[in-house]
Amino acid sequence: xxxxxxxxxxxxxxxxxxxxxxxxxxxxxxxxxxxxxxxxxxxxxxxxxxxxxxxxxxxxxxxxxxxxxxxxxxxxxxxxxxxxxxxxxxxxxxxxxxxxxxxxxxxxxxxxxxxxxxxxxxxxxxxxxxxxxxxxxxxxxxxxxxxxxxxxxxxxxxxxxxxxxxxxxxxxxxxxxxxxxxxxxxxxxxxxxxxxxxxxxxxxxxxxxxxxxxxxxxxxxxxxxxxxxxxxxxxxxxxxxxxxxxxxxxxxxxxxxxxxx
Amino acid sequence: xxxxxxxxxxxxxxxxxxxxxxxxxxxxxxxxxxxxxxxxxxxxxxxxxxxxxxxxxxxxxxxxxxxxxxxxxxxxxxxxxxxxxxxxxxxxxxxxxxxxxxxxxxxxxxxxxxxxxxxxxxxxxxxxxxxxxxxxxxxxxxxxxxxxxxxxxxxxxxxxxxxxxxxxxxxxxxxxxxxxxxxxxxxxxxxxxxxxxxxxxxxxxxxxxxxxxxxxxxxxxxxxxxxxxxxxxxxxxxxxxxxxxxxxxxxxxxxxxxxxxxxxxxxxxxxxxxxxxxxxxxxxxxxxxxxxxxxxxxxxxxxxxxxxxxxxxxxxxxxxxxxxxxxxxxxxxxxxxxxxxxxxxxxxxxxxxxxxxxxxxxxxxxxxxxx
Lengths: 261, 371
What we know:
heterodimer; A: about 260 residues; alpha/beta; Rossmann fold; five-stranded parallel beta sheet; 12 helices; about 40% helix; about 10% strand; B: about 375 residues; alpha+beta; eight-stranded mixed beta sheet; four-stranded antiparallel beta sheet; 14 helices
């Protein structure tokens, strides 16, 4: 996308989500100003009421696909955009709302809504990549604005975006944190979750709850066994792993096995 | 194993009291060193810059076990925490250069301070010597700049911790080379000082110490022998590289890989692990930053190269780490890569004990050979 002075058209779409990841884009502050020099914001309802019908150079999609309407919409966006980037854990893995994927859909709708017959949603909340080809994914609940910015910078300068997919532990220790699991016995999902958040929770003495999703080649079996060893009941281990990114492939496959054991 | 006599009669031995430690600290400060030493931060002994001698938490002890660390206020002796001198000599994240759109290159200017490590343990001293071997004369410039002006004040370990095995690795629990000053808190307020370099002699001359008496030297010798018995693993260095090499296909590694997360905490806390990744961060103005960050051989992407991946399975990555420390390193650099500090044991969130792994592989090979 480098080599010409024409601004790239950027669109930001929201699906089933809390809008927190879009807000992270706005949180970029000064960096947002430098971004605007390179892109034209063509569609971003959280920030502006202007609607440019496209086509777009870069489309950011926040949120999971959880209604029949969203299935159609996400396909339209794909057709209308050169590069599609899923942003946030909802768009990348299905999000917290994919907790319903583990339950009976009708039961859930009845529990949540007084008039369930008015609800027209899908039985499962699924990632964008289940429906269309996604070029890049930036996970997190919410995304880390600097990581999102980094990916945008790389895309806009014509580079294939790269960020490390290793364990959160590495980022945590590089940042000077002490392991909360070893020094305080706090259950932490960091050893199987991906870096990128700046090890936010361990920096404040909490265990990672896995909102960025699994690292590359994760070992949920080993971690679950260890969490049980340090005293976390199995039901708690399951809830923690399900919580934010349980619907990601490696965690889901593990949980389906582990729950039956 | 280090023989007590090797340590005790290399230099002179002086006797002082705990106040002399404070004087030693102040001499380092007055000579313009920034002093890095042990400090209690959020219930963990960290290595941090100290402004005052009293920040050193003497009187605190710790309990260390595989995957377990707690500080206790029990009047005991603390050991090294998760930080090692590596953090200061070889920072976890370092800007290498910025390349401008016209392809000109701008190098960062770092400020280098005269640095004193105060009260680090012999294992960490040994780790600095190991890192010196790796960096050599043409090694990392940042490392050399910090290293050039280092003052090494080492505290000998009278009570090694439960994950320590420096006596097996021949690096402790008493310092025997490469330090400026070594001291031992022998109890009852008495501190024994030993200079290890001309700088050490010079610095100690500013303190009012007396030559140690014969009984004190005998006492110290016994302390050393007792401590050396504690910091041991159940293997020896004899033929270790050859034995481990014969155990390449050991089942032990595969068993460990079932417990290992591949999180690389061991690489991060290891005082000698020096591997890094290089990240390029392009900016919108067409410039780019090149940044070096700590990486480790347990990382999946570490052995991923154009055209493939040469250590896809975690057991192969774990095995590589062990073999690098105990086999390849000594052939390449003349020392073992492991100094027996035991950080990778204490700080492994899975609680894996490297000592047991090496012991088990050695046993397996020995059994096989006997058959």
